[in-house]
Amino acid sequence: MAKGNNFALVRKPSSAVEKTAPGAKRVLAAIVAETIALAEVKTLIEFSPNKSPLLESWCQKGESYYDGRNTPQDCVEAAKWFRMAAEKGHAKAQYWLGWLYHDGRGGITQDWTEAAKWYREAASQGNADAQYALGIYFGDIVNDTEKVEWLRKAAEQGYSGALLELGRRYHDGEGVRQDYIEAGKWYREGLKPFLEAAEKGDAEAQYFLGNCDVDSAGELQDDVDRVKWYRKAAEQGHIEAQVALAHQYADGNGVSKNFAEALRWYLKAAENGHEWARLYLSSLYLDGDGVERDVIEAYKWLKLAIDQNEMWEVKLNRLLSFLTEEQIAEAEKRYREFRLPKK
Prior knowledge:
68% of the residues lie in helices and 0% in strands. The protein contains 18 helices and no strands.
């Protein structure tokens, strides 16, 4: 070790140690090595916590408990591991601890003040998830000026949600001076990865674009473009897109009103288990919109929706009030047949 090096972790062994028996030298060498390793771990934790394998392992342990991965899900145990790493300065663990207080489930008491505290700790180290969270949640706990600052930091890292939210804020003049040109700039950047994925056939990205209020140029999206993206995703079997496309046909938005087409798309989603599609389908059959009125089919689809959510029982009770015993028997038969395993 060079003379005057103030960063020496362990002094050079004395000549007395060098003259000891071989066995003792091995023991001393092991002690020295262990001391150096512990000192290095401590130094890494203190000065570079996000590069510490130990802190990262604690954070991963917390994630395993949170996700229920290779261990029973336990948010309280997850919080313990996240806190151990977070208090040492590990940014990802700080974000996760903030999320647990934000979400407030699994035995963790919801506390948005505590959540914002840990999000700020992570965000100040450049964690984009935490920066985005501070930009869109917390009401008065985080004021509009601070929200925009955090959104900008996340957006500058390419965080899509932050890019789009920043675009919306400039468009609406929320927390910033209204500026449509600036809004368009952020919108275009935010939509870029979704457009690339959608053009390659990614159904989830296509559905996302259908839900957007702006187009690729940062302008308000018209319903014709919305239908285009919904259709691309729906034709690939995306259930939510199928329901969205059915809505467009039922309401005549972006396409001519066409209950028969609405029925066709609701049917595809309903057959794949979409609760709301089953409800809409039941209503179409009951009202005779785009299809011959069929109270038996209306009953069947309503009963299938009730399998997913018992709150719709009240609708069934009203329907039962004007069905004959023969109609109920036939409806129950169709309901049971639909539930049989498909060959």
